Amino acid sequence: MRIAILGAGESGVGAAILAQQKGFEVFVSDKGHIAEQYKNMLNQYGLQWEEGHHTEERILNADEIIKSPGIPDTAPIVAKAIAKAIPIISEIEFAGRYTKARKICITGSNGKTTTTSLIYHILKKAGFDVGLAGNIGRSMALQVAQNDREWYVIELSSFQLDNMYDFRADIAVLLNITPDHLDRYNYCMQNYVESKMRIIRNQRQSDAFIFWEGDEYISKELKKHDETGEIYSFSDEKSPASIAFVEDGVMRLLAPFNFEMQLQELSLRGRHNVRNAMAAALATLRAGVAPEAVRSGLSDFPGVEHRLQNAGTAHGIHFINDSKATNVDACYYALDAMHAPVVLILGGLDKGNDYNEIMPLVKEKCRALVFMGVDNQKLKKFFGEKGIFYAETCSMDECMKACVRLAHPGDTVLLSPCCASFDLFRNMEDRGEQFMEWVKRFAHEGKEVEGK
């Protein structure tokens, strides 16, 4: 049986190694450039691969295709495979066939990396044999091939969920559904909602589904599904349906065990992080972690890179790296957590964003906006028509120089761009790292870097 793999990044290479181990004939194809570390892995295992193009006859004769989540169905090679009715699956779907591990799966438009990392941190600290996979960590397929675990904590994007069919989450966590990636869903919100709801696909009654009760879509969509396990909802305030909620400065859980924790004991701050903590507590308690171990993990979790990450203070200005904020809702939560006046960096590849959601917070908290992107026209039109002061830039250096000119001592420069990064940067990590590096140079060199 032949398997073709499209995309030779972390997930693709891991899937290739597992497929070879299971006796498949494997061919790996990447239309772009394959990183040296992945070329070395492919060569180490004697796998056949190509880069810079797709050889159609070697892909379209496959019995099954494993596709990188970043490749859309509209890509010509994928469209041809669909026309030939070749099954197309994700790496997670493939890996799930070959492990008996229990799986905690997390999705949501915002907060999923923090919540996934927090759940993994708690399980690891509690002594569980656990792997971290999906959008973060190492390829699940590679872990299954080389060192299978008893548990996996898996962050799942909508793109990964789209190509998952028989996979089942023992514990599914859906944090929220807000507009994101609409360019991949024909600018139809319902298409995106249905993609996120696939997290509960194939669940049994003995499984668990954890979700935020206050979401606009989840409760309504849940009525259409009968395959969910036990329901655990969490909310900002106590309600008749909520299993977890906040009351008098205390996070309270009524199931699967009674659990209470003062909000001030949580290592992460901000309303959105309280929600993430409730989801993580529900998931880990349901997985069998002792309450005291959950409490300990919630209190010493160090946080996630590029998500409200403190980049330091230089010359009286505070800098916050929130490069992971690639949609409007994520930026909303970042602004909501700010207390000092803000110079906000926005821009990149717009994904169908509606900026009305953040407009009240922009007016309340922002001294100025700085746009950083190849094309800032949508931002200029939206905020300019509302009389918001902005500067336009098209590089990190130009952007940061504008920020420090506009900021006053005590202000915060917040990189929370609402957009994807691929117009100017390799990825959102590259954007965040360049931001952090610029701040370091500014702290050391001061006015020379600033250009005053």
Task: Please give the structural blueprint.
Blueprint: E1 2-6, H1 10-21, E2 25-30, H2 36-44, E3 48-51, H3 56-59, E4 64-67, H4 76-83, E5 88-89, H5 91-96, E6 102-107, H6 112-125, E7 130-134, H7 140-147, E8 151-155, H8 158-162, E9 171-174, H9 189-197, E10 208-212, H10 218-222, E11 230-234, E12 244-247, E13 250-253, E14 259-262, H11 271-287, H12 291-300, E15 309-314, E16 317-321, H13 328-336, E17 342-346, H14 359-365, E18 366-372, H15 377-385, E19 390-393, H16 396-406, E20 412-415, H17 428-445, H18 447-450
Parallel strand pairs: 1-2, 1-4, 2-3, 4-5, 6-8, 6-9, 7-8, 9-10, 10-11, 16-20, 17-18, 17-20, 18-19
Antiparallel strand pairs: 12-13, 13-14, 15-16
Helix pairs in contact: 1-7, 6-11, 6-12, 11-12
Low-confidence parts, pLDDT < 50 over ≥5 residues?
A: none
Distance between the termini: 65 Å
What is the assembly state of the chains in this entry? Answer: single chain
Approximate strand percentage: 15-25%
Radius of gyration: 23 Å
CATH architecture of the largest domain: 3-Layer(aba) Sandwich
**Count of alpha and pi helical runs:** 18
Question: How are strands sequenced across the largest beta sheet?
Answer: 7-8-6-9-10-11
Structural class: alpha/beta
Main β sheet profile: 6 strands, parallel
CATH topology of the largest domain: UDP-N-acetylmuramoyl-L-alanine:D-glutamate ligase
Quickly name the level 1 CATH class of the largest domain.
Alpha Beta
Could you report the average pLDDT, rounded to the nearest whole number? 94
Q: Tally of extended strands?
A: 20
What's the number of domains? 3
* Name of the CATH superfamily of the largest domain: Mur-like, catalytic domain
Approximate helicity band = 25-40%
Give the overall shape, derived from the CA principal axes. globular
